[in-house]
Specification:
By secondary structure, this protein is of the alpha+beta class. It has four helices and three strands, in the order αβααββα. A three-stranded antiparallel sheet has the order 1-3-2. Strand 2 and strand 3 form a beta hairpin. Helix 1 packs antiparallel against helix 4 and helix 2 crosses helix 3. The longest helix is centred in the last third of the chain and has 25 residues. The chain is globular, with a radius of gyration of 16 Å. The two termini are 26 Å apart.
């Protein structure tokens, strides 16, 4: 199951991270910790950081550098208007897919 879960997460992780940020802004490690608390225990911190950089480049999140007690400033990510629109589209698409998958599981379309 772990390999299949990893493959499925690749396609949905961006939406999952955006959903996590819809509640409140966070820095990379905090996002990873939140996801692990939700049961996504196999997600590597490096994967989240790479994804955050891509989402920043695509304009889905805003970034603010906040002083840290230890070391360099932290990059705190928050969902912006474009990210909210993308997240809404993600949820619409997710609903469409889950409805179709349920139909298949129940024996037909």
């Amino acid at each position: 199951m772990a390999k299949l879960l990893t493959e499925m997460l690749k396609g949905t992780l961006e939406g999952i991270v955006l959903a996590s940020l819809s509640g409140r802004a966070a820095y990379g490690y905090e996002i990873t910790a939140r996801l692990r608390e939700q049961g996504f225990s196999d997600i590597a911190e490096g994967t989240i950081y790479a994804l955050l950089i891509r989402m920043e480049k695509r304009g889905l999140v805003d970034v603010e550098k906040v002083p840290s007690e230890k070391g360099p400033p932290r990059k705190v990510y928050s969902l912006n208007a474009q990210g909210r629109e993308y997240l809404e589209e993600f949820w619409r698409t997710w609903s469409f897919l889950t409805e179709r998958l349920e139909q298949l599981r129940e024996g037909g379309m």
